[in-house]
Amino acid sequence: MGISIRAFRSDRRGFPMWYKPSDVTLVIGLTGGIASGKSAAAGFFRELGVPVIDADVLAHEVMAPNGAAHAELVKVFGPRVLGTRGQINRAWLAEGVFGDPDLRARLNSIVHPEVAKLSRDRLAEVMGPTVPYVLYEAALLLETGRYEDFDALVIVDSSAEEQASRLSLRDTLSREQVEARIGAQYSREDKLAAADHVIHNHGTLLELREQVSMLHQILLQLSVQEERNGR
After folding, report:
1. Is 41 a residue whose pLDDT tops 70?
2. What single string gives the DSSP state of each residue in the chain?
3. From CA 108, how far away is CA 114, in angstroms rounded?
4. pTM value?
């Protein structure tokens, strides 16, 4: 199955200042459920020369010992959240919050604003007149409501069975843990309803790469169209 495309949403222009440092380059959101193949797709976009800002990498930075969110995380979750070298134990934290919506919301309220601030800086570094579009890769664009801030939203779609199979192999989790992680995110139906473009990841990596290449050409055309429209 090839990519699914919806009409470009030209009404997405309400970017917060940290998301939209330039009106020259399109900013495309990329998301998908856990173990959907989102990161693999992002890697293929990188191979095509597309700048990709990875929100998970930024989260690592803000949670590092000298990061902007580190002290508040220790304050809220206590010293048990720390690893042996003073770093945030992300595995422990993930296990604790996946089954507790209140704790998960508290974690997100600490980390996401700091990631947002850092996002603006990283976007500003890569945007410009010679860059048609930038991808912003994040797992929780729908959950945070920020998916509406982008020029277009790309969803990498996989079935719950495909996600569970990949997640079990990748992280050696129990069935209960797998179900908890999938259940903690927006449903597949909600993601597809919000998407402007859907990459259907139900086959091989080669098939995924081919879909990314097709979508890349479409996004380049959208960039040209927006430039002609006086973006």
Report:
1. yes
2. ---EE----TT-----TTT-S-SSSEEEEEEESTTSSHHHHHHHHHHTT--EEEHHHHHHHHHSTTSTTHHHHHHHH-GGGB-TTS-B-HHHHHHHHHT-HHHHHHHHHHHHHHHHHHHHHHHHHH-STT--EEEEE-TTTTTTTGGGGSSEEEEEE--HHHHHHHHHHHH---HHHHHHHHHTS--HHHHHHH-SEEEE-SS-HHHHHHHHHHHHHHHHHHHHHHHHTT-
3. 10
4. 0.85
> Among candidates 219, 212, 213, which has minimal Cα distance to 150?
219
- Cβ partners under 8 Å of residue 222, min gap 6: 8, 26, 133, 151, 152
Amino acid at 84: T
CA dist 177 and 52 (Å) reads 29
Question: Shortest CA distance to 207 belongs to which of 153, 154, 158, 169?
Answer: 158
Displacement of CA 210 from its chain's centroid (Å) = 21
* Mean per-residue pLDDT, 137-152: 86
Closest CA to 30 of 173, 180, 134: 134
Encoding tokens for residue 122?
A: 């990283």
| Tens-digit pLDDT profile for residues 175-197 | 777 777 777 778 888 899 999 99
Phi/psi for 155 (5° steps) reads: -110, 130
Structure tokens at 190: 């909600």
| Residues facing residue 88 across a β-bridge | 82
Angle at 37 (CA atoms; ends 39, 103), nearest 5 degrees: 75
